[in-house]
Amino acid sequence: PEATRAAALMSREVHGVDEFDTADEVLTVLRDKGIHQVPVLREGRLVGLVRTRDVLRFWARTSLAPPPALA
């Protein structure tokens, strides 16, 4: 285990999204491929990573009504 290399652990088939894809498109890739994170690419180069929870947090912040004020 200590000497195990990253190559032995990694996925060979990588599914990426473009930096201009919408949140819906990213979530579709995550769901359809059964993965929880996806690399974000610009002209084929890695610029970031989006996780399922990143998309869900974004939707929660932008779609849900704010909580009522506490009195």
Give a description of the structure.
With 71 residues, this protein is α+β, with helices and mostly antiparallel strands. Helices cover 38% and strands 21% of the residues. A 3-stranded mixed beta sheet has the order 1-2-3. The mean pLDDT is 91.
Distance between the termini: 55 Å
Q: What is the ordering of alpha helices and beta strands?
A: HEHEEH
Rg, Å, rounded:
17 Å
Mean pLDDT: 91
Identify the strand order in the major beta sheet: 1-2-3
| Structural shape | elongated
Helix content: 25-40%
Strand runs, count = 3
| Binned strand content | 15-25%
Output the keywords:
single chain; 71 residues; alpha+beta; three-stranded mixed β-sheet; 3 helices; 3 strands
List the helices and strands and how they pair.
Blueprint: H1 6-9, E1 17-18, H2 23-33, E2 37-42, E3 45-51, H3 52-63
Parallel strand pairs: 1-2
Antiparallel strand pairs: 2-3
Structure at a glance:
Helix content is about 40%, strand content about 20%.
